[in-house]
Every structure is written in structure tokens, then in C-alpha cells.
Specification:
- With 130 residues, the protein is mainly beta.
- The protein has one domain: TolB, C-terminal domain (Neuraminidase), CATH 2.120.10.30.
- The protein is built from no helices and 14 strands.
- The protein has strands spanning 3-6, 9-10, 15-16, 20-23, 29-34, 40-45, 49-54, 59-65, 71-76, 82-87, 92-96, 102-106, 115-119, 122-129.
- It has a 4-stranded antiparallel β-sheet, with no helix packed on it. It has a 4-stranded antiparallel β-sheet with strand order 9-10-11-12, with no helix packed on it. A two-stranded antiparallel sheet has the order 1-4.
- Residues 1-5 have low confidence and may be disordered.
Length: 130
């Protein structure tokens, strides 16, 4: 099995943080997103999942599954409680970060979703890009 790792650089001091490692934990990473409190790092990948790592403990927190094809976009809400991945299949999931449960799966986007961004002052507004 392939070994994968992800290096985090502490930009203020120019030092590397502990490395996230694993056996085939990551497929091709399409996009990454930090939670607002910097505890979690989410990876959208081509294996139809979003992997969420707790970077304070250097262990996986959970894998979010529910898309039928590659996940190309991911974003945390401003309070960090909601994770929103967007997929090549045009779906957008609304997931609870703590429980890993799906709140809503939005359908109807005419093509794949390449970016999902929350409005800076409202966790109920999203910008979805294709």
C-alpha cells in the first residue's frame, strides 16, 4: 500500500507541524479546508469521501461518505460545526462535523461543484462555483 503524508507549515515561525500520515488514507486530494478554530483539516478526494483530521492530535477524526463520485470542494462553516463538500455529481452535502451525520443533500446543480465558500458574516449563505 502507498504511504501518504501531508506536511503543515507553521507560517508565523517557519517550522513544520507534525506530519499527518497513513496507509492509503488519502486518494488524490482535490481541495483542503481548515476549520475556523484550526483543530480540523478536511480533504476532499477522488474516492467519493471527505477525510477530516484532528491536527491537534494527528489522528483521523472521521471520513464523510455520501457522494457518488469525486468530491472536488470542501468548506467549513464559520462556527466550524458544519462541513460542506461539493461533488462532480453536482450534489452538495451539509454535514455535522461532530456527529458525521448528513443534514441535507442538495441536488439540482447542473454540473460538478468546484468550489464552496461560506459568506464571511453568515453561516447560512453559501457561494457554489462551477
Amino acid at each position: 500500500m502507498a504511504k501518504y503524508f501531508f506536511l503543515l507549515l507553521e507560517s508565523g515561525i517557519g517550522e513544520f507541524c507534525p506530519t499527518l500520515k497513513g496507509d492509503a488514507i488519502f486518494s488524490t486530494i482535490r481541495m483542503e479546508a481548515f476549520s475556523p478554530n484550526s483543530q480540523f483539516l478536511a480533504f476532499a478526494s477522488d474516492d467519493k469521501t471527505v477525510k477530516v483530521w484532528d491536527i491537534t492530535t494527528n489522528i483521523p477524526h472521521r471520513a464523510i461518505q455520501g457522494h457518488s463520485i469525486d468530491v472536488d470542494a470542501v468548506s467549513f462553516s464559520l462556527d466550524g460545526k458544519v462541513l460542506v463538500p461539493g461533488s462532480v455529481d453536482g450534489t452538495i452535502g451539509i454535514w455535522n462535523v461532530s456527529t458525521g451525520s448528513l443534514s441535507h443533500m442538495l441536488h439540482g446543480h447542473s454540473s460538478g461543484v468546484e468550489a464552496v465558500v461560506f459568506h464571511l458574516k453568515s453561516h447560512s449563505r453559501l457561494c457554489i462555483y462551477r
